[in-house]
Design goal:
- With 321 residues, the protein is an alpha/beta fold.
- Helices cover 24% and strands 17% of the residues.
- It has one domain: 3-Layer(aba) Sandwich (Rossmann fold).
């Protein structure tokens, strides 16, 4: 199937003649992935659950620790995974930004959120199990994160440093609070923070943004949220009724979501296109920033408070020297 709106907005299909992310692995540190979805099943090369059911809550499809498979209770992680790397040319569904990349399903969030300790374990496990790119479509504002994620943020910061030392690209969502700061853990200097744009490439109304040019911030398609489902981003979800925008998401399942969580895997997918070219994690971040585009600004990679360095551009990124 051809790429859906989000991957087209980052010009992923125009990059595929150069790179499709072959040989790369994207770790989805999230709510788990539907292990049976036809757009994803052949892509998943490993996974593990780290959630503490006592603290995080276990819903249908959740497992607790002990190396259990990281299947999807909540559809969030499945949607994120599809945007990053859904398979192409299988005559169904959508194509992800990096359709030849593989996936790790790392479950760190349950019904009630999660803990920084679990997230840190998930990051370290991802690094030790072959991740080239880590996608974290999760977080909260500094100072209020205890409402959603418990524990010490330093656990995650240390894990991000570990990933950086091992050459892994770490990408995280800015947050949906319309605040002038990247949330936790996206604000960490070892992570690339991702803000969201709508289908008109304007900053999404809900998106956090970073006003300081010393932060690594780019933008990706995140949809319009409360305005219209058709303006949001379609991707994979577990089959069955009760979708976010759709009464019955069908079999296999697809639905429209919005948020910086949804923008982030677009950037992770482009990062995998770049790591497949042999670029280091620092080179990947530099190229993503340098080739990003901002509406109304002629020079690529120009920092603005609302877009960061701009909307990621897969075509320009893979062509960069």
């Amino acid at each position: 199937m051809e790429a859906a709106g989000g991957p087209r907005q980052v010009k992923a299909p125009q990059a595929w003649s150069t790179s499709k992310g072959a040989g790369q692995t994207i770790s989805i540190v999230d709510t788990g992935i539907d292990l049976d979805h036809p757009d994803l099943a052949s892509k998943i090369v490993g996974g593990k659950t780290f959630i503490d059911c006592g603290a995080s809550g276990c819903g249908n499809g959740d497992w607790e620790s002990g190396g259990a498979k990281a299947g999807a209770g909540d559809p969030h992680g499945t949607h994120v995974a599809g945007t990053a790397a859904a398979i192409t040319n299988n005559r169904t569904g959508i194509a992800g930004v990096a359709p030849k990349a593989k996936l790790l399903a790392v479950k760190v969030l349950g019904e009630e959120g999660g803990s920084f300790e679990d997230i840190a374990y998930g990051i370290r496990w991802s690094v030790n199990n072959g991740a080239d790119v880590i996608n974290m479509s999760l977080g909260a504002l500094p100072g209020v994160q205890a409402l959603v994620i418990t524990g010490k943020i330093t656990d995650v910061q240390d894990a991000i440093r570990y990933a950086n030392r091992r050459g892994v690209v770490v990408i995280a969502a800015a947050g949906n609070d319309f605040a002038s700061i990247c949330g936790t853990p996206a604000f960490d200097e070892g992570a690339l923070c991702v803000t969201a744009t709508d289908r008109n490439e304007l900053k999404a109304s809900y998106s956090n943004f970073a006003v300081k040019p010393d932060m690594d911030v780019v933008a990706g398609p995140g949809g319009a949220a409360f305005l219209s489902c058709e303006e949001d981003i379609i991707s994979t979800v577990p089959a069955g009724a009760g979708g976010f925008c759709t009464d019955n998401v069908g079999t296999p399942g697809y639905d429209f979501y919005a948020g910086t969580s949804i923008a982030t895997p677009h950037v992770a997918g482009v990062a995998a296109l770049l790591t497949a070219q042999g670029r280091s994690h620092t080179e990947v971040v530099d190229v993503l920033k340098a080739t990003a585009r901002t509406p109304g600004v002629q020079t690529r990679g120009t920092y603005t408070p609302t877009y960061g360095y701009g909307i990621v551009d897969a075509k320009a990124a893979v062509a960069a020297p």
